[in-house]
Amino acid sequence: MDKTKPLNNLESGDIKPKQKRKRTKVVRSANIDKSRKRTGKIQPGGLRRKIFLTGIEFLGLGIAAFCTTIMLLGYSASRFSGTSFFVNLLPFAAGISGLILAASLFLIGWWKLRKWLRLHSEFLTPGLSLALALLISWLVTHDQFTLTYGHFRTLVGGKEEAGRVTVAHQVYAAYRRHDAAQLQKMVDRSQEYRQAIEDAARSFNIDVNLLHGIAATESSFIPRDSSDGGKGLFQITRVPETVIAQARKRLGTEKIALDNSRHNAFVAAATFKHYLTEMKDDLFLGLLAYNIGPANGGLRFIMQQYGAADFTTIQPYLQTLPRDYPIRVLSYSLAFRLWHKEGKLLAYEEGSNAIHIQRIGIPGLHTGW
Predict the structure, then answer these.
(1) Residue range(s) defining the domain that contains residue 26
(2) Where are the transmembrane segments (predicted)?
(3) Concatenated DSSP letters of 250-315
């Protein structure tokens, strides 16, 4: 073997091929990065920004489409209400077809506008959709939308919603008939018991205005013992033992004193919650059951006896019982909600107050707009 010949590259000290390969690899990597930039591929940060802006765009369009659909359907339901095929049903169906066509044309136009806007700035498209959503949302806050939304609910809710609307207007009529001066005096008297009622309502997860309405109906905020056995602020009579146990637990006491307004409020809240659960969260039936109590087997037995399913169908069979009790409670509850929201009692018949009051809504029945 020739000893003068190197055994390998390491022995010869020739490392240039490796250096050349390393430099080639680095150059290739740099060229790839430059190539990616030239081809316009999105980096991770840019991809996240694009997803975010697209999400804003779709959110704005979704809000605008949702509110616009409600307004147009509600307006159509009011404009073409009736049973005549040519006068009512056919125009309504044509209106729905027109709405679908208009939505399709809008989406086509938006897609073309979107491409043009993105050539100038990626922020223009989401900004425009957000502005559109804000404009539609601003229109929704107006009182006139309440009427349109009411027609939409009637259109979708059918018989159930029609019954609710009928009873709701009985509540508005009862509120309208109240003597404003007497109602204001009662609201002023209620301030003494406000904290106790708020604590009881919060403890049993009940609308505080509803509890105020029950107290107003029962005692006008003048606690007393009545001839029929009612005691205190909420005129408590016979209540289930489980109700007393719940009130004791929430109050943290071993004995209930019904002449104590705080105890009285907690027992009333527990009782109403009990009957509301028994009536499967039907507000009118829950109030009626609260008023009837265990008499005559309770409201549930009466409804089974006559085959009634809701407040509307049970009313004709309550000739000897206070069937207007829920209406009176809710009319007072409405007064307290107005007082808390507006700082005053609005006259229903003045100006546009009727629509405004309907937008605020009846406590427990709906939240309003």
Answers:
(1) 9-39
(2) 51-77, 89-111, 123-140
(3) HHT-SS--TTSHHHHHHHHHHHHHHHHHHTTT-HHHHHHHHHHTTGGGHHHHHHHHHT--SHHHHG
Q: What's 322's domain CATH number?
A: 1.10.530.10
Q: Is 98's pLDDT higher than 90?
A: no
> CA dist 270 to 33, 152, 289, Å?
71, 35, 13
**Token digits for 11?**
């022995």
What is the percentage of the chain residues whose pLDDT exceeds 70?
76
Cβ partners under 8 Å of residue 340, min gap 6: 209
Task: Indicate whether 18 and 82 sit together in one domain.
Answer: no
The pTM score is 0.64
Q: Is residue 255 in some structural domain? A: yes
Between strands 224-225 and 231-232, the pairing is antiparallel
In angstroms, what is the C-alpha Rg of the chain? Answer: 35
Does some domain include residue 190?
yes
* 193 and 313 housed in the same domain: yes
Domain membership of residue 364 (yes or no) is no
Closest to 267 (Cα-Cα) out of 253, 284, 281:
253
In tens, the pLDDT along 236-281 reads: 988 888 899 999 999 999 899 999 999 999 999 999 999 999 888 8
The total domain count for the chain is: 3
Distance CA 216, CA 268 (A): 13
DSSP structure string for 83-148: S-IIIIIHHHHHHHHHHHHHHHHHHHHHHHHHHHHHHH-TTHHHHHHHHHHHHHHHHHTSTHHHHH
CA distance 250 to 267: 10
Residue 290's nearest CA partner among 299, 302, 281, 301 is 299
> What does the CA dihedral 275, 278, 283, 288 come to, rounded to 10 degrees?
-50
What pLDDT sits at residue 37? 47
Instruction: Say if 49 falls within a structural domain.
Output: yes
Question: Across 153-236, where does the E strand assignment appear?
Answer: 224-225, 231-232
316: which DSSP letter?
Answer: G
Task: Count CB neighbours of 300 within 10 A.
Answer: 14
